[in-house]
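Can anyone check this?
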Amino acid sequence: MVLPYGIPSDDTFRRVFEFIDPEALNRCFFRWVETLVTRTGGAIIPIDGKTIRGSYDRNQGKSALHVITAWSAEQRLVLAQMKVDDKSNEITAIPALLELLDITDCIITIDAMGTQTEIAQKIIDKKGHYVLSLKANHPTLYAQVREWFEQALGASVFWA
């Protein structure tokens, strides 16, 4: 390819990317991923949220972009990703992300932020399995689980 005016600048690339409709790109990307991943049964799919550094726009008063991602550990591939609404958080975005995926017989892992009854139920309804982290941000459940482990360890049942 001949570039008579040289390699486009980073500003040119940015302006081109700004014209891309994120929803259309997401649909195309998802269709492409479906052609690559034909079977996910039994796969481990971590779901996690990240804030994209440098994605804020001070001039327009926009905060940094926060996305939630479902990752195929086996395929080493992002299966689905979506923006977390500015007025929301991962707790509301995870169920919407799960709607995009066939998680039948897959093991979904989520950090403590996603340890919610509704999220666990969504995974069960979609015939998946889950491993959820538990921290003291759920004090009652945390205390119950801690007590169960202490009882089990004390009676040597846990290690049997």
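Reply from J.R.: I decoded it. The chain has one domain: 38-154.
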